């Protein structure tokens, strides 16, 4: 618990104080490198899945996520969702919207500690809404947990996007 608390404090408050923090791991260097590579791959998978979802196929996004009851999603539509069943429904809804466009992570910062990792970035790109290009330029954080040897998303939060505004929780 103390290790998790230290990780969260470093992640949330050190960047605000102007510092760039990389969590130190008690793991051997080879294990740290392996985790860095695996988290980088999970991050790439997440953004590839997001862009695939914009075409109407939500399955890769659903594959990127943990199935746990403690996971959370606070996306650009203002929703605050807890638990896989609710989050899965949201990915189905978003895939059906077929927003089009493409988003990439910019200014990517990764912190890894044990079996948890967090990435923060600026999601930059565009969606197509009612035939009109809408700019995406929002802050984002994604939390991963190592489950059965695979890094799965357990939390994602972004700034809101006006064209997706739907503030409520389910």
Task: State the gist of this model.
This protein has 170 residues and is of the alpha+beta class. 34% of the residues lie in helices and 33% in strands.
What's the topology here?
Elements (H helix, E strand, L loop, with lengths): L1 H12 L15 H25 L5 H6 L7 E3 L6 E2 L1 H14 L4 E12 L2 E14 L2 E16 L2 E9 L12
Write a structural description.
- Residues 1-26 have low confidence and may be disordered.
- This protein has four helices and six strands.
- The protein has one domain: Nuclear Transport Factor 2, Chain: A (Roll).
- Strands 2-1-6-5-4-3 form a six-stranded mixed beta sheet.
- The longest helix has 25 residues, at 29-53.
- It has helices spanning 2-13, 29-53, 59-64, 84-97; strands at residues 72-74, 81-82, 102-113, 116-129, 132-147, 150-158.
- The chain has 170 residues and is α+β, with helices and mostly antiparallel strands.
- Strand 5 (132-147) and strand 6 (150-158) form a beta hairpin.
Characterize the largest beta sheet: strand count, sense, and whether it forms a barrel.
6 strands, mixed
Strand order of the largest sheet: 2-1-6-5-4-3
**Strand portion, in percent?**
25-35%
Count of discrete structural domains: 1
* Overall spatial form: globular
What CATH calls the topology is Nuclear Transport Factor 2, Chain: A
Mean pLDDT: 85
Radius of gyration: 16 Å
| Uncertain ranges | 1-26
- In helices, the fraction of residues equals 25-40%
Task: Give the N-to-C terminal Cα separation.
Answer: 29 Å
CATH class, anyone?
A: Alpha Beta
Number of helices: 4
State the secondary-structure class: alpha+beta
Please provide the ordered H/E string of secondary-structure elements: HHHEEHEEEE
Number of strands: 6
> What CATH architecture would you give?
Roll
What is the multimeric organization of the chains shown? Answer: single chain
């Amino acid at each position: 618990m103390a290790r998790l608390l230290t990780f969260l404090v470093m992640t949330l408050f050190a960047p605000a104080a102007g510092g760039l923090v990389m969590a130190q791991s008690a793991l051997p260097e080879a294990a740290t490198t392996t985790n860095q590579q695996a988290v980088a791959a999970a991050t790439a998978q997440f953004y590839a899945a997001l862009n695939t979802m914009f075409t109407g196929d939500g399955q890769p996004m659903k594959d990127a996520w943990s199935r746990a009851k403690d996971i959370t999603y606070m996306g650009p539509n203002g929703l605050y969702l807890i638990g896989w069943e609710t989050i899965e429904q949201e990915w189905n809804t978003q895939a059906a919207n077929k927003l089009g466009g493409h988003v990439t992570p910019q200014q990517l910062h990764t912190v890894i500690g044990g079996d948890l990792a967090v990435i923060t970035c600026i999601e930059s790109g565009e969606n197509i809404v009612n035939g009109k290009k809408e700019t995406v330029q929002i802050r984002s954080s994604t939390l991963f947990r190592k489950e059965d040897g695979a890094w799965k998303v357990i939390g994602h939060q972004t700034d809101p996007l006006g064209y997706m505004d739907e503030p409520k929780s389910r």
